[in-house]
Amino acid sequence: MDGQELLLNAQGLYSIYEGLEGSTNVVALRGLNIELKKGEFVSIVGTSGAGKSTLMRIIGGLQKPSAGSIKYNGKEIVRMSEDDLVPFRRSQIGFIFQEGNLIPELSGFDNVVKTLRYADVGFSDARKRADELLRSLGLASRMHDLPHRLSGGELQRVSIARALANNPALVLADEPTGNIDYANTDQVMQIFKDLHNDSETAFLIVTHSQHVASYADRHLELSDGMIIGQHGSGSNLYSLAESRSVVVTEIGNLTLPPELLGALDQYGLLWDFSFDVNGNGPRIIGKPSIQQLDKCPVCKSDLNGDTFNCSSCGAKLN
Ligand SMILES: Nc1ncnc2c1ncn2[C@@H]1O[C@H](COP(=O)(O)OP(=O)(O)O)[C@@H](O)[C@H]1O
Ligand SMILES: [Mg+2]
């Protein structure tokens, strides 16, 4: 597992949900780029509504982006038909979503076996692999129960076993340990790690758990549909500003981190700043430059020394 080769290359992803009648559209992803190498273990962090689940569904080929390109091993999947996408997903991707989606009439064991059979694994090999995986996830005594008899955490572990069963190239996991207690999280992470080490499986994991995130090679920080920062392994999820590297997009856009935007909350003046993230968090060092803008940033008319409001359009200047 040296992970040099690119597995996934997604560029310029937009996702727009049409609002219901009378409401505006929601732009859930705004020109997002993401690359994953084979065998990489990457976590996605970001507040609720940032676009994490949308990104996972789009990368997994479950939902089409409004624009953008998604290549696996150089092959574009955005314009693939559903008929071609089904075998692609079955052979390449393991999904672990909170909804679970187990077949309710089949035991956990049979759910996992069925997934393996879809991937053309022989019957006895499929049974052996399902048994091993479910045991390693602490489900030895529960695997033959129907899903409705299992707890939330047990169901989630069955979904995990199913997602990992046929050694996918990429595991997409959206808060995979949300319903699982600490001890079982360790078991799950151990299995992720084994798969990661043994078979070059890449992982893209949305998580709020520091414990889960601590296994990642890097963390991508998603905010308002864009990746606004990248963090190295071992970062503290609770003080992201301390380890943030800001990311310039391919077209040269730089999205400022939320702390900085908050501090800059003024228009019309040019700021001259450095960004210090040590100590008590980010702050602006220095003063706003006294040089005033000549033109209104909103309506572009000459400001003629206006300080507080543009006399043409009324825009607030500072
Ligand atoms: N099916 C949908 N229809 C309309 N809006 C949606 C839909 N799914 C998500 N959204 C909106 O898109 C944005 C991103 O949502 P989501 O991807 O679920 O974020 P996260 O997983 O980070 O919480 C939110 O504003 C959410 O309300
Ligand atoms: Mg989500």
What would you say this structure looks like, in words?
The protein has 8 helices and 15 strands. By secondary structure, the protein is an alpha/beta fold. It has a 7-stranded mixed sheet. Strands 2-1-4-5 form a 4-stranded antiparallel sheet, covered by helices on one side. A two-stranded antiparallel ribbon has the order 12-15. The model has no long low-confidence stretch (mean pLDDT 83). It folds into 2 domains: 6-246, Rossmann fold; 256-318, no CATH class. The site of adenosine-5'-diphosphate (ADP) has 11 residues, from β2 and α1.
Offer a concise description of the structure.
The protein is α/β, with parallel strands linked by helices and 318 residues long. The chain is 27% helix and 25% strand. Magnesium ion binds next to helix 1.
